[in-house]
Amino acid sequence: MDTHFVAVNKPAGLMVHRSRLVHRNTRFALQMVRDQVGCHVYPVHRLDKPTSGVLIFGLYPGAAGHLAQCFSERRVSKFYLAVVRGWAPESGIIEKPLAKYRDKKKRTNTIQPALTRFLRLGTIELPYPVSRYPTSRYSLVLARPETGRLHQIRRHLHHISHPVIGDQPHGDGRHNRFFAKTFNCSRLLLAAVRVVFDHPFTGAAITIDAPLDARFCHVLNSFGWRAAAVKHIPQPLLPLLT
After folding, report:
1. What is the C-alpha separation between 186 and 89, in angstroms, rounded?
2. How far is the C-alpha of 47 from the C-alpha of 238, rounded, in Å?
3. High-pLDDT (> 90) share of the chain, %
4. Which of 131, 164, 226, 235 has the fewest CB atoms inside 10 Å of its own CB, making it the most exposed?
5. Would you call 103 a catalytic residue per the annotation?
6. Which residue among the candidates 48, 167, 209, 213 is catalytic per the annotation?
7. What is the assigned CATH class of domain 5-241?
8. Structural domain spans, the chain
9. What is the pLDDT of residues 123-148, one digit of tens each?
């Protein structure tokens, strides 16, 4: 937190703010941060409700507007860790236009360009016949979206047949249930672990990291991926995604 912005680690399952589409929620990140810092805060960007990680608010409208413009102009680098079904390619670029949503359930006819870079950090094969195969394969992926479309990483990984574990609309229910039963993890295994940008007022290089929660860490430990995700984004990996 400085005089312009406050950053928090949003837990999975928490909405950023109130929505007319979801009436039963009573806790929201915006309200909780406002109560903690003692003043109104203003969202700079969004995270899906089931996604955890770095979330930034402006402490006044002008600050939020300046940093939001940095996001829209692709001057902010965002890094996500995801556990996906199957063995993903070692690296790649997913450049698939995505339909814009009027809300989270209704697509429009507007097609927007969308690009996601990714790097595979680890793989595992488990002796469980979750689907029609005698074993089940999974990958740990580091994703860097260069655009900010709704559910972009989830939709892009689903497009290349490696959906994120725990994803309800875009994932594989059999593997989602397997993780819930075997690893006691029913959350979406997608986390915004790092955001990097130049401060719009001071020019200082800013890096904000968010630690993973216990359920996500349990999966990484169980699969022997802890070393690959140490400090969430090992520094040598960054040039590979630029």
Report:
1. 25
2. 22
3. 79
4. 235
5. no
6. 48
7. alpha beta
8. 5-241
9. 999 999 998 899 999 999 999 999 99
